Amino acid sequence: MAGQYGSQPIFIINPNTEHRQGKDALSMNIAASKAVANIVKTTLGPKGMDKMLVNEIGDIVVTNDGAMILKGMDIEHPTAKMIVEVAKTQEDIAGDGTTSAVVIAGALLEKAEELIEGGVHPTILIKGFNLATEKAVEILNDFAVDVSENRKMLETVAKTAISGKSSETDRDLIAKLCVDAALEIAKDGKMNIDDDIILRQDPSETVSDTEIVEGIILFKSRLHPSMPKLVKNAKIALLDAPLEVRKTTNKSKIQIETPEELEAYLAQEDADVKAVVDKIIESGATAVFTTKNIDDHAVHYLQKAGIFAIRRVNDDDMKNLSYATGARIVKKPHEIEALDLGDAGRVEQEGDTDPATIFVSECPNAKVITIRIRGGTEHVTDNLERTLDDALRVVKAVYEDKKIVAGGGASELEVAQKLREYASSIGGREQLAIAAFADAIEAVPRAIADNAGFEGMDIILKLHAAHLEDANAGFDVYSGDVKNMVEAGILDPLRVKTQAILSASEVATMVLKVDDMMRAQKKDMMDVAPEHNIHNYNRPF
């Protein structure tokens, strides 16, 4: 950006900075948003297609999970990154509906672009979108059905979330496992899914062998065959430090001239390790877990004391153990005390292979359970883990909110129709924005129909006609019929639908408010238009 002083230009902004203003900036941002939406749109619905993501070292992920796809993309455009944040917010709050949120956001901006070209100011659109969002949430709340803590209802909702995933053939089993696990950790009308349920992949056997295990599973082995395989009423010590001969931080040399001096030096090293182990024994610990190494000296003294020990436990497992047992993670083993220890009714190793399977169960501090995910390959267990996570979160949403809505596009059609009625009651150009919002909501059922091989517009027209008599009318992608979704058992949590609209509307209005974009150029940036440099699949996941 430059001003003019006499005949000399005055540069306010670095002339190498990419600078877009007004409609040019808005069009570029809308194009980026639509591009992201179009990438994930084809994955929507039970018949949605999959995406293959390949990282720099050739690892492959095949999935139709919108959150996973967007997470695996190397997003370059700043506005596209904002759209990805929508998916993250949707995943964190509702646990499902990430693709729907992104598709609605893209459709909102596409409709907004048409109105802007027709002379409607972005400020008017923002006001209309805000009015439409408030009304849409109100319509959804009125449309929702109250449900009790009904196990059958929870399984039905879980099955709907599983539909279209690669694990759909086992959806009855998966839905049952999710409901069993969720109800087991439910407390005071809430479910702490993130802390109380651990998903642990074990690529072996078949998907049908997936099971719920009480407590925490670790794929590790005790460090010495003389250590006990089973410790009852265990006192758990968690260490974030090595149990080994201490090394100097700097390079140093020790001059030893006689065998006696060498023997004394080694004895001192051994004594140092023994002193730390003695402190652990003195604290009353009967099972030791550490994130670092345990050397042979320490293993010797631990096994002599009958203490169960494993090493190199990852940080997530240590946090889970701390949460379940109540143990504190200690960074200075020589200062450990009885108050730092946790409790577990059983610490047990199953089998003698390396790694074996270690179970930490009967923890009084917190009821933690693990779903042991089985499958023939890592690709199978990866997909099953994502499916279980989505299903658990929709079960949580219904259990806590006790509200569901009809699926199959029924809720979107109902919101769209009521919004159009509402638009006619609003004066000024805001009604154009509200009507556009209604059209954008219908992008979800239209994409579901398109992905199933049907003509989306024809299905929307059929749904409009059916909704004149039945508000729960939706589209069954398997039969191709329009039917009552509640009776068909195709149900969604109210939270998922509400949050998808809120997230999409929020990012759309944010994009519409930007009329000036200044972007510093990278030295190695390719000379391409930003809207065409949105993603790159080659990144680690």
CATH superfamily label of the largest domain: GroEL-like equatorial domain
Low-confidence stretches: 524-541
Helix content: 40-55%
When the domains are counted, the total is 3
Molecular shape: elongated
Distance between the termini: 39 Å
Count of helices? 18
**How many beta strands in the DSSP annotation?**
21
Estimate what percentage of residues fall within beta strands: 15-25%
CATH class of the largest domain: Mainly Alpha
Average the pLDDT over all residues and give the rounded result: 85
From the alpha-carbon coordinates, what is the Rg to the nearest angstrom? 29 Å
Biggest sheet character: 7 strands, mixed
Describe it.
- There is one protein chain.
- With 541 residues, the chain is α+β, with helices and mostly antiparallel strands.
- It folds into three domains: 16-144 and 405-532, GROEL, domain 1; 148-215 and 372-401, GROEL, domain 2 (2-Layer Sandwich), CATH 3.30.260; 217-367, GroEL (3-Layer(bba) Sandwich), CATH 3.50.7.10.
- Helices cover 47% and strands 17% of the residues.
- The protein contains 18 helices and 21 strands.
- A hairpin with a 5-residue loop joins strand 4 and strand 5 (60-63).
